[in-house]
Structure formats: structure tokens, C-alpha cells
Amino acid sequence: MLKSNPHVWFKPPVILCYGVAALSVTGALIIARWLEINLQIAPVSLFLCAIMLSVWFGGIRPGLLATPLSVLAFAYYFVPPISSFAVEGKEIQRFLIFVLSAIYIVPPVFSRSHSR
Fold first, then answer.
1. Within the chain, where are the H helices?
2. pLDDT recorded at residue 108
3. CA 8, CA 13: separation in Å to the nearest integer?
4. How confident is the model over 27-50, as a mean pLDDT?
5. pLDDT tens, residue by residue, 77-93
6. What is the pLDDT of residue 35?
7. Where are the domains of the chain?
8. Which residues of 85-103 are buried (b: 16+ CB within 10 A; e: fewer)?
């Protein structure tokens, strides 16, 4: 008789892991843009959640895919000048804090989600 181990996590297909990473960042961008139109928002938390979801679901590599996607989306849509990847001088600190936060959360989330 086979026994199932409740501590073994189902390993989804690789393409699904990377798809979740791309879709989670896309979803965060859509929600942030929609909230920007209707409310005043801080989109950083949405992108950080997308990265954490990607790491939790797919592992470190999909998390590392979600990180630059989130950074690029944040720079293009939310950091002045808008619709450009350039960053104004007064926005560099804000942008760097986001980048460092995004990079920092990948390994800790990975180690917690796969330590079982």
C-alpha cells in the first residue's frame, strides 16, 4: 500500500512555473494601473507580492524571472518620466530601494517554501 507524504510538495511543470511568474507580474501591473486611475496607490507591494507568489509556486528561477519583469514594469509605468525606462535623478533612491527589496525577497521566500 502506498502512503502519501503530506510534506511533499507537488512539482508543477516548468513551463507552468514560468507562466505563473509572468502572469503574476502582468496581473500586478494591471491591478496597479487600474488602481492608479481610480485611486492613489503604491504599486511596489503588488509587484513584491507577484515575486513572492512566483517563488512560492515555482521556485527560485521563476522568482528570478519575475524580479526583472517587475523592475521593468515599475520603471516604465510608475517612475518618472512615465513611459520610459529612464529614471529621474530625484527618483533614483525610490527605484533602488524597490530593486533591492525585490532581489532580497527571492532567497528567503525560496528557503521557507522548500524547507519542508
1. 14-38, 44-58, 60-78, 92-113
2. 66
3. 16
4. 85
5. 988 898 999 999 999 99
6. 84
7. 14-113
8. eebeeeeeebbeebbeebe
CA–CA gap between residue 27 and residue 70 (Å, rounded): 11
How far apart are the C-alpha atoms of 51 and 99, rounded to whole Å? 12
Q: CA 63, CA 66: separation in Å to the nearest integer? A: 5
| CA atoms of 41 and 114, how far apart (whole Å) | 32
More confident residue, 107 or 58: 58
Q: What is the pTM of this model?
A: 0.78
Q: How far is CA 72 from CA 38, 97, 109, 115, in A?
A: 23, 14, 21, 30
What distance lies between CA 72 and its chain's CA centroid? 11
